[in-house]
C-alpha cells in the first residue's frame, strides 16, 4: 500500500477521475437536453385517478404525469399532512398536469401516492390542444354543428373532421389579417409619414393634401372590404362547438375555433405516437408562438436567429479576412504588429455584454439616432433606426466575432508554405495576383472555419442582443411582402433569448419548461453541429497542408 | 504566423512588369492600398470600443459649470428680499420682497415686465414673511390681525403664432381671502409654514413671545368642491426666548427653531402632542451659525458657519428614536452668506460674503464648482426649477447664472467607498439605481456589484480549476492518443455551448435539484475521490491476467461507470440521509438550526454552472501547454529512474506552469464577464455576503438588467457604461497577461 501511494499512482487516477467527471458532465448535459427536449413531443398517456383528500372527499383527476419525486414523510407531516397508515420513510409525489386552466384554477397539482385510490387509462379520454388557456382534458361527447347537437356513433372521426374545417378557416383568416390587412395598414402608415414629410419640408400644398386624402380613402375602402371578409371567415370558423365532459363530471361546451387539434393518446400505438411525435416536431419549428410564448412553435425565433446571423456573416467575413491578410501579408513584422495581434486575440475574451453596451451606445443611439435625424425626420419622435434592431444586432455581433475570423484566417494563412508564395512571385505574378489566385483560394477552408465558428458563437450569444435588438415577441418578421421587403430596423426574436424569456419571465414557468428544453435542444444541436463541421474542416485542412509541406 | 513574405525588390518588379503591365501594377497597388486601408480600419474600429466607452464615461467625473448670463437692475426697491427665482425656461425672473411686492423681470430683455402686490386687508399690515421649500415656490405673510396670506407665482405658457410666450402672474393657491390663523387675532411674528392640499401648518409667536402652532385640516365639500378648513392651535412649551430662524419641514412633521448656536427640534405630527424631541448643539469653536437650510427632500439640514464650514445633519434611528446626527461636513474658503438647495437633487449652492460661489453635492461629497463673482453682500439665492440656472440677488441687482451640473451624484468615493445615505443607520455600500418615488436619490455604489462579480468568479474557479487542470494533465500526459483524439474535442465543444442554456439549466434544473438533494451533493464531494481511490486500489490489487483481459486503450474510461454509479447512489440515498440527520428537510435545518440564509439560486449553483462554462477554456489551454512540453524532457526524467508521477510534478508541470497560469487567467477572464449564467442562476440581489448559500449581483448581469431601461445620458446610464468599461479593462488585462505568458512559453519551447 505504502509503495503504491509513493509511486503516485493514486494521484494519476485522481487526474483520470477529473477527465471522467468532465466527460460525464458534457455528455450528461447534452443527453439531458436532448432527452427532455425530444420527449416533449411524445404523446404521454392520459390517466384518470380517483383520489381522496385530507377531508376524506373523493374526486377525479384527469391529466398527464408531469414529474415525480420522493418526499420524506416527516416533511409532509410537519407541513400538516395526516396519514391514515404509516407510509414508510418516503412518499412518492406526482406532479399532474390537469389542463382546463379556466375551470380548475391550477393547471398543475401535486398528488401523493398515498392519496390515490385507483388509476386508469380510459380509451375515450382526449387531449384538446387549444389556442387559448392551454390544453383541455376530457371526454368528447357530442358535436354541435351550427347550433344543432349531432347524435353520432363515431364522435372521434366527426370531431376531427370538424376541427380540420375550423382550423382551415382560422388559418385563412389569420393569413388575411397578416398579409392583406397588414399591407393596407403598412400603406396607411406610409401615407401618414409622407404627409408629415411634406409638412416638414413646407411643401404640403392643398393639391397634395387632396391627393393623399384620395389615396387614404381608397385604402380605407379596401380595408373595409377586407375587414368584412375577415369577420365572415372568423364567424364561419366559430360555427361549431364540441361538448366535453371534464374531470369534475360537468359538460363543457368549447367553441371549435379555439381548438387546434385533438389527440386520443391512450388509443395510439407506437406508430401512431411516432406519427404524432413527428408532426409535433414539425409544428414546433414551423408555427408561431402562442399564449405569451409558452405554447406553440418557435418559427419567428428560428427565422430571426438565422437572418441576424447571416447578416452578421455578410458583414464580418470581408472585414475579418482583410484584416487578417493585412496583418499577415502586408503589415511589417514588428512590435506594433505583434501588439495588434495580441490585442485582437484578447478582444475575443472581452465579455460579450461589453460589446452589447458599445452597440447600444454607439450604433443604436449615436449612429441610429443620426440616421433618423437625417433620413427619417417625419417619423420622429418615434425612432426608426434609433432604437434596437436587427441591423444593429448583426453589427454588434460582427464586431464581437471579428477576432474569431481574424485569428482563424491568419492561422490558415500561416499554414500556407512560403515556398508557394515565392514560387508564384518568381513566375512573375504580382503580389495582388498571388493573393487573389493562390493565397485566398488556399486559405478559403480556414476562412470557412472562422466563419462557421463565428456563426456558431453568434447564434448562441444572448447578453448583447438583449441590449441591441432582441424582443420577446416581434409582431412582424424582418422580411415580408411590403416594400422594401427587408426591414433591417425591425426588432426580432432569437432562440437564445426565447429560452431566457420563456424560462424566466413567463407567467407560467411550469407549463413552459418542456418548451424551453425543446428550444434548447434545437439551439444546441445547431451550434454543436456547426462546431463539429468547423473542427472537421480544420482537421481536413491540416492534413492537406501537412502533405504540402513535405 | 511566423512566415512572412520577403518583399520583392523594386528593381525586380520593374523588370517583371515592363510596359503594358501598368494595369497589373495599378491593380497590385490598389490591392495593397485596399488591404492596408481595410486592415487599419478594422483595428481602428476595435480601438473605437475602448475610446467610445471612455467618451461616454468621462462626463460623470467632470465638475459643474456656472456661467453668468445676465443681470438686471432692480427698480423701486422698497423692502428687503424674501425670495427670488425663475420659471422653468429661465426666461422670467421674479423677486418677492418682504412687504408683499412681487416684481417680474424678463431675462431676455432685462426689463421689468410686471409688478404686483399682495392684497393686504385695510386694517392690517404685514408683520412677518416666509418662503416655502424651493420646489413649491410659495410664500406666506403673517398679518398684524392674526391672518395669513399665502401666495405663489404662476407662469402661463401660450403659443401665439407658434412662438412661446410666458406670462407671469401672482396667484393665491388657497384663495384671495386671508386665512385666519390666530383665533385671538394677535399679530403673527416670525411665521413658519408648510402646506399640503389637505393640511396647513403655521408656527408663530405673539407679541409676548409665546410660540404657537396652528394646524388647519381641510375637507373638501362634495357639493361646492371648496375646501373647508378646521383649525387647531396649541402652544409650544420650552420654546427659546430669542429665535433667529424658524423652519418647518414640508411634510409638517417637524418644526425647527434656531436660537443662536442651538437648534430646537419639535415633533409636530400631532398638534395636541407637540414635543421637543431634540436640541442640537451647533456650537463649534469660535464660529457663528449663519444659516440653516433644508436640503431637497427635506430630510437633511445644512448648517453653515461664518468660517466657511457647512455641516449636514439628518435623522438616524438610534436608542432615543430618530435623532438628528452630524453626517458630514464641507469646507469653503470664506464664510457662507446664503445656501440654496436644488428642487429635487441633493446639490446645493453657497455664496459667501465676498461673492464666492460654490456648488456642492452632499452624498458624493463633491465640490463641483467654485469661483468668485461680483456677488458681494448677496442677499438671496435660488435655483431654477430645472436646476439649470441660479438666481442671485446682490447689490441691488438680480443675477442669472446658467448652471451645467449633470452628474453631481457620482464620484469616485460614492462609487467605491461607504456612503451614508439619508435614512440609513450607518454608511453602507448600496446599489439601488431606480425607485418609484420622485425625490428618490439613486445610490450608485459599484462595490456590491464588483463584490458579486468576484464572488461568482471565485466559486466558479474553485470548482473549475482543479477539475480542468487535473483533466488537462491526464489528457495530455497519460491518455492514449486514440482516446485523446475523442476526449479533447468533446470537452472543448462545451465552450461553444450557449451560456443561456447553461444558465437555464442552472436556474430551473440544477437549483431545485441541489435544494432537494443537498446532503447528496455534499456527500458527492466526499464519495467521489474515495471511490476513485478505491477503484485505483482495486485495479492495483487485481491479478495480472484480469488486467490483460480489459482493453488497454480505454483504461482511462473505466472510471466513467464508477463515477456514474456513485453519482446516482449519492442522489438515491440523499432523502434517507435527510430523514436520518436533518429532520427530513435540509433547507429548513440550515435556516432554522444553523441560522444561515438559504436562497434557492445561490453561489453554489452559479459556481457549478459557471464552472462548467469555464472548464473547457482552462482545459483546452492547459492541455496544450502540457502536451507541448518537449518529450525528451520527460523521457530523460523517466530514464533517470523517476516515476511517472515524479516526472509529471517535477519536470512536466514545472515547465508547463506558465501555460497553466495563462489558462487560469483566461478562465478567470471568462468567469468575470459571464452574463447569462449569473443572470439566470442567481437572485440578482446586490448583497455583500460570502455565504455559498446566498446569491449575488454581478456587474455584467446588472448591465443586462438595467441598461435597456436607463435614460440616455443620465448618470445611471454612464455608470453602467463605467461598469462595462471596468469589465473591459479587467478582462483585457487578464487576457493580455495570459497571452504574453503563452507567447513567451512558446518561444522557450522552440529553443528547448
UniProtKB/TrEMBL annotation, chain A:
Question: Which segments of the protein form a coiled coil according to its record?
Answer: 209-236
CDD domains in the cross-refs: TM_PBP2
Query: What GO cellular-component annotations does this UniProt entry give?
Result: plasma membrane
Q: What is the topology of this protein in the membrane according to its UniProt annotation?
A: Multi-pass membrane protein
Give the UniProt keywords, A-Z: Cell membrane, Coiled coil, Membrane, Transmembrane, Transmembrane helix, Transport
> Where does the sequence pass through the membrane?
12-35, 298-327, 339-367, 390-413, 434-456, 515-537
The protein's matches in InterPro entries, at most eight in alphabetical order, are given as: MetI-like, MetI-like_sf, Phosphate_PstA
Q: Does the keyword Protein transport apply?
A: no
Gene Ontology process terms (BP):
phosphate ion transmembrane transport
Transcription as UniProt keyword: no
One MF term in the entry's GO annotations: phosphate transmembrane transporter activity
Show where the ABC transmembrane type-1 domain sits.
302-534
Identify one Pfam family in the record: BPD_transp_1
Task: Tell me which family the UniProt entry assigns to this protein.
Answer: Belongs to the binding-protein-dependent transport system permease family. CysTW subfamily.
- The name this protein goes by in its record: Phosphate transport system permease protein PstA
Q: Which organism is it from?
A: Shewanella insulae
UniProtKB/TrEMBL annotation, chain B:
Q: Where are the transmembrane segments?
A: 33-55, 456-479, 491-511, 517-539, 559-583, 603-627, 648-668, 717-738
A Gene Ontology biological process noted in the UniProt record is: transmembrane transport
Localization, per the record, is: Cell membrane
InterPro entries associated with the record = MetI-like, MetI-like_sf, WD40_repeat_dom_sf
The highest taxon in the source lineage is: Bacteria
| Entry's Gene Ontology cellular component terms | plasma membrane
User: How does the record say this protein sits in the membrane?
Assistant: Multi-pass membrane protein
Ranges where the ABC transmembrane type-1 domain occurs: 450-738
Q: Cross-referenced SUPFAM superfamilies, in alphabetical order?
A: MetI-like, WD40 repeat-like
Q: Which UniProt keywords apply?
A: Membrane, Transmembrane, Transmembrane helix, Transport
| Family statement drawn from the similarity comment of this UniProt entry | Belongs to the binding-protein-dependent transport system permease family.
Q: Can you name this protein?
A: ABC transporter permease subunit
Q: Which organism is it from?
A: Shewanella insulae
Amino acid at each position: 500500500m505504502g509503495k503504491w501511494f509513493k509511486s503516485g499512482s493514486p494521484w494519476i487516477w485522481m487526474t483520470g477521475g477529473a477527465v471522467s467527471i468532465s466527460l460525464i458532465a458534457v455528455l450528461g448535459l447534452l443527453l439531458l437536453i436532448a432527452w427532455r427536449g425530444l420527449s416533449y413531443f411524445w404523446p404521454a398517456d392520459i390517466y384518470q385517478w380517483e383520489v381522496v383528500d385530507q377531508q376524506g372527499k373523493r374526486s377525479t383527476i384527469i391529466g398527464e404525469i408531469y414529474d415525480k419525486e420522493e418526499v420524506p414523510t416527516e416533511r409532509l407531516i410537519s407541513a400538516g399532512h395526516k396519514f391514515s397508515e404509516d407510509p414508510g420513510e418516503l412518499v412518492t409525489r406526482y406532479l399532474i398536469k390537469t389542463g382546463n386552466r379556466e375551470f380548475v384554477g391550477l393547471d398543475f397539482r401535486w398528488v401523493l401516492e398515498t392519496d390515490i385510490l385507483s388509476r386508469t387509462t380510459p380509451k375515450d379520454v382526449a387531449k384538446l390542444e387549444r389556442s387559448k388557456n392551454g390544453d383541455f382534458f376530457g371526454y368528447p361527447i357530442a358535436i354541435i354543428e351550427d347550433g344543432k347537437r349531432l347524435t353520432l356513433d363515431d364522435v372521434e372521426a366527426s370531431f376531427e373532421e370538424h376541427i380540420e374545417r375550423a382550423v382551415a378557416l382560422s388559418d385563412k383568416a389569420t393569413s388575411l389579417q397578416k398579409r392583406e390587412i397588414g399591407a393596407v395598414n403598412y400603406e396607411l402608415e406610409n401615407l401618414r409619414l409622407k404627409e408629415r414629410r411634406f409638412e416638414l419640408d413646407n411643401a404640403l400644398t392643398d393639391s397634395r393634401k387632396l391627393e393623399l386624402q384620395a389615396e387614404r380613402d381608397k385604402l380605407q375602402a379596401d380595408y373595409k372590404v377586407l375587414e368584412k371578409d375577415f369577420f365572415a371567415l372568423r364567424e364561419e370558423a366559430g360555427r361549431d362547438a364540441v361538448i366535453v365532459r371534464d374531470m369534475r363530471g360537468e359538460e363543457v361546451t368549447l367553441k371549435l375555433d379555439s381548438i387546434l387539434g385533438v389527440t386520443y393518446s391512450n388509443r395510439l400505438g407506437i406508430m401512431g405516437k411516432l406519427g404524432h411525435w413527428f408532426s409535433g416536431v414539425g409544428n414546433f419549428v414551423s408555427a408561431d408562438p402562442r399564449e405569451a410564448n409558452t405554447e406553440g412553435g418557435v418559427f419567428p425565433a428560428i427565422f430571426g436567429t438565422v437572418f441576424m446571423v447571416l447578416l452578421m456573416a455578410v458583414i464580418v467575413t470581408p472585414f475579418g479576412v482583410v484584416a487578417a491578410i493585412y496583418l499577415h501579408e502586408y503589415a511589417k513584422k514588428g512590435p506594433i504588429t505583434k501588439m495588434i495581434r495580441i490585442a485582437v486575440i484578447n478582444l475575443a475574451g472581452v465579455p460579450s455584454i461589453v460589446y452589447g453596451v458599445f452597440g447600444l451606445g454607439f450604433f443604436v443611439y449615436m449612429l441610429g439616432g443620426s440616421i433618423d435625424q437625417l433620413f427619417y425626420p417625419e417619423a420622429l419622435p418615434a425612432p426608426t433606426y434609433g432604437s434596437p434592431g436587427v441591423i444593429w444586432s448583426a453589427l454588434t455581433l460582427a464586431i464581437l466575432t471579428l477576432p474569431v475570423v481574424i485569428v482563424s484566417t491568419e492561422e490558415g494563412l500561416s499554414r500556407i508554405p512560403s515556398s508557394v508564395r515565392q514560387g508564384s512571385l518568381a513566375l512573375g505574378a504580382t503580389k495582388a495576383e498571388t493573393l487573389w489566385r493562390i493565397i485566398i483560394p488556399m486559405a478559403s477552408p480556414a476562412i470557412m472555419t472562422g466563419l462557421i465558428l463565428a456563426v456558431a458563437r453568434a447564434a448562441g450569444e444572448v447578453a448583447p442582443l438583449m441590449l441591441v435588438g432582441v424582443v420577446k415577441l416581434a409582431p412582424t418578421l424582418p422580411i415580408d411582402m411590403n416594400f422594401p421587403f427587408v426591414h433591417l430596423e425591425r426588432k426580432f426574436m432569437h432562440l437564445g433569448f426565447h429560452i431566457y424569456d420563456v424560462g424566466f419571465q413567463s407567467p407560467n414557468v411550469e407549463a413552459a419548461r418542456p418548451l424551453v428544453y425543446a428550444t434548447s435542444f434545437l439551439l444546441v444541436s445547431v451550434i454543436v453541429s456547426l462546431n463539429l463541421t468547423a473542427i472537421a474542416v480544420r482537421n481536413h485542412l491540416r492534413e492537406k497542408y501537412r502533405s504540402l509541406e513535405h | 504566423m511566423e512566415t512572412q513574405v520577403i518583399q520583392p525588390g523594386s528593381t525586380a518588379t520593374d523588370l517583371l512588369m515592363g510596359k503594358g503591365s501598368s494595369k497589373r501594377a495599378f491593380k497590385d497597388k490598389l490591392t495593397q492600398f485596399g488591404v492596408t486601408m481595410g486592415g487599419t480600419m478594422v483595428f481602428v474600429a476595435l480601438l473605437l470600443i475602448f475610446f467610445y466607452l471612455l467618451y461616454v464615461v468621462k462626463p460623470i467625473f467632470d465638475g459643474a459649470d456656472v456661467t453668468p448670463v445676465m443681470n438686471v437692475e432692480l427698480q423701486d426697491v422698497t423692502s428687503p428680499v424674501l425670495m427670488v427665482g425663475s420659471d422653468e425656461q429661465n426666461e422670467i425672473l421674479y423677486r418677492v420682497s418682504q412687504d408683499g411686492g412681487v416684481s417680474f423681470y424678463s431675462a431676455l430683455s432685462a426689463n421689468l415686465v410686471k409688478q404686483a402686490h399682495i392684497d393686504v386687508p385695510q386694517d392690517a399690515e404685514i408683520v412677518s414673511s416666509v418662503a416655502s421649500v424651493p420646489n413649491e415656490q410659495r410664500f406666506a405673510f403673517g398679518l398684524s390681525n392674526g391672518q395669513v396670506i399665502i401666495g405663489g407665482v404662476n407662469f402661463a405658457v401660450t403659443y401665439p403664432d407658434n412662438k412661446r410666450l410666458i406670462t407671469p402672474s401672482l396667484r393665491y393657491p388657497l384663495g384671495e381671502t386671508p386665512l385666519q390663523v390666530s383665533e385671538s387675532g394677535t399679530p403673527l411674528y416670525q411665521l413658519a409654514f408648510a402646506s399640503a392640499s389637505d393640511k396647513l401648518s403655521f408656527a408663530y409667536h405673539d407679541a409676548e413671545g409665546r410660540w404657537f402652532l396652528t394646524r388647519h385640516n381641510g375637507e373638501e365639500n362634495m357639493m361646492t368642491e371648496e375646501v373647508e378648513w378646521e383649525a387647531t392651535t396649541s402652544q409650544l412649551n420650552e420654546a427659546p426666548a430669542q429665535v433667529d430662524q424658524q423652519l418647518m419641514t414640508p411634510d409638517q412633521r417637524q418644526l425647527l427653531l434656531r436660537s443662536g448656536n442651538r437648534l430646537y427640534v419639535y415633533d409636530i405630527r400631532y398638534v395636541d402632542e407637540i414635543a421637543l424631541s431634540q436640541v442640537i448643539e451647533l456650537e463649534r469653536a469660535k464660529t457663528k451659525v449663519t444659516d440653516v437650510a433644508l436640503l431637497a427632500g427635506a430630510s437633511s439640514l445644512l448648517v453653515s458657519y461664518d468660517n466657511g464650514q457647512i455641516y449636514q445633519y439628518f435623522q438616524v434611528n438610534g436608542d432615543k428614536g430618530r435623532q438628528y446626527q452630524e453626517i458630514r461636513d464641507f469646507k469653503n474658503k470664506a464664510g457662507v452668506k446664503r445656501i440654496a438647495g436644488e428642487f429635487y437633487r441633493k446639490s446645493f449652492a453657497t455664496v459667501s460674503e465676498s461673492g464666492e460661489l460654490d456648488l456642492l453635492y452632499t452624498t458624493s461629497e463633491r465640490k463641483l464648482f467654485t469661483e468668485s463673482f461680483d456677488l458681494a453682500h448677496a442677499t438671496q439665492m435660488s435655483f431654477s426649477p430645472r436646476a439649470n440656472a441660479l438666481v442671485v440677488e446682490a447689490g441691488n441687482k438680480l443675477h442669472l447664472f446658467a448652471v451645467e451640473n449633470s452628474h453631481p451624484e457620482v464620484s469616485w468615493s460614492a462609487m467605491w467607498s461607504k456612503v451614508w445615505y439619508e435614512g440609513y443607520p450607518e454608511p453602507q455600500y448600496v446599489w439601488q439605481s431606480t425607485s418609484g418615488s420622485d425625490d428618490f436619490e439613486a445610490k450608485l455604489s459599484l462595490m456590491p456589484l464588483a463584490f458579486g462579480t468576484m464572488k461568482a468568479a471565485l466559486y466558479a474557479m474553485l470548482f473549475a480549476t482543479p477539475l480542468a487542470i487535473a483533466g488537462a494533465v491526464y489528457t495530455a500526459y497519460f491518455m492514449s492518443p486514440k482516446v485523446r483524439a475523442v476526449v479533447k474535442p468533446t470537452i472543448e465543444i462545451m465552450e461553444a455551448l450557449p451560456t443561456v442554456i447553461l444558465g437555464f439549466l442552472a436556474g430551473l434544473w440544477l437549483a431545485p435539484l441541489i435544494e432537494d438533494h443537498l446532503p447528496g451533493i455534499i456527500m458527492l464531494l466526499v464519495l467521489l475521490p474515495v471511490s476513485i481511490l478505491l477503484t485505483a486500489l482495486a485495479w492495483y490489487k487485481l491479478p495480472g491476467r484480469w488486467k490483460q483481459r480489459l482493453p488497454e486503450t480505454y483504461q482511462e474510461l473505466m472510471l466513467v461507470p464508477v463515477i456514474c454509479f456513485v453519482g446516482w447512489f449519492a442522489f438515491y440515498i440523499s432523502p434517507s440521509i435527510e430523514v436520518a440527520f436533518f429532520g427530513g428537510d435540509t433547507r429548513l435545518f440550515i435556516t432554522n438550526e444553523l441560522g444561515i440564509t438559504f436562497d434557492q439560486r445561490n453561489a453554489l449553483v452559479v459556481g457549478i454552472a459557471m464552472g462548467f462554462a469555464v472548464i473547457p477554456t482552462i482545459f483546452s489551454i492547459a492541455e496544450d501547454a502540457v502536451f507541448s512540453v518537449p518529450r525528451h524532457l520527460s523521457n530523460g526524467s523517466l530514464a533517470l529512474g523517476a516515476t511517472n508521477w515524479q516526472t509529471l510534478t517535477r519536470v512536466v508541470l514545472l515547465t508547463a506552469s506558465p501555460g497553466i497560469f495563462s489558462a487560469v487567467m483566461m478562465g478567470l477572464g471568462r468567469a468575470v464577464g459571464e452574463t447569462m449564467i449569473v443572470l439566470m442562476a442567481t437572485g440578482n440581489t446586490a448583497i455583500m455576503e460570502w455565504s455559498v448559500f446566498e446569491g449575488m449581483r454581478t456587474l455584467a448581469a446588472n448591465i443586462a438588467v438595467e441598461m435597456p431601461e436607463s435614460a440616455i445620458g443620465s448618470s445611471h446610464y454612464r455608470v453602467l457604461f463605467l461598469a462595462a468599461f471596468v469589465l473591459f479593462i479587467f478582462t483585457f488585462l487578464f487576457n493580455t497577461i495570459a497571452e504574453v505568458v503563452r507567447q513567451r512559453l512558446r518561444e522557450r519551447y522552440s529553443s528547448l
